[in-house]
Automatic annotation (TrEMBL):
It comes from Chaetorhynchus papuensis (pygmy drongo). Belongs to the MINDY deubiquitinase family. FAM188 subfamily. It catalyses: Thiol-dependent hydrolysis of ester, thioester, amide, peptide and isopeptide bonds formed by the C-terminal Gly of ubiquitin (a 76-residue protein attached to proteins as an intracellular targeting signal). The keyword Hydrolase applies. Hydrolase that can remove 'Lys-48'-linked conjugated ubiquitin from proteins. This is Ubiquitin carboxyl-terminal hydrolase MINDY.
Amino acid sequence: QVSPGLRTPRLPVWLCSVSGRHSVLFGTDSRLLSDWKSERIFHLYFYSGQQEQTQTAHLTIDTHSHHWEEAQREDPCSPRKRHPALEMAIRTKWAGATVSWNGTDPFF
């Protein structure tokens, strides 16, 4: 029998398989589980356990940013247009969200 704490977590946790590697994406705000209004700007943390990751990445997710304005200024073939696989995985839950890596070089 599965514990109720595992069936209904108190904090948001996602197990990810990004680029063939397993990792954990989690938040420390329990409101993300029950209040859609808290999904405006929030923080998530990412840990892959890989040797090249020395600390947990702190990400800021903005689901109401004006990402299309930036897209109009850039050439669609520009290498800066490409997004890390982790950002694309996050966008499967929050379509169109912008992800700030807060000073960490994006990996994945």
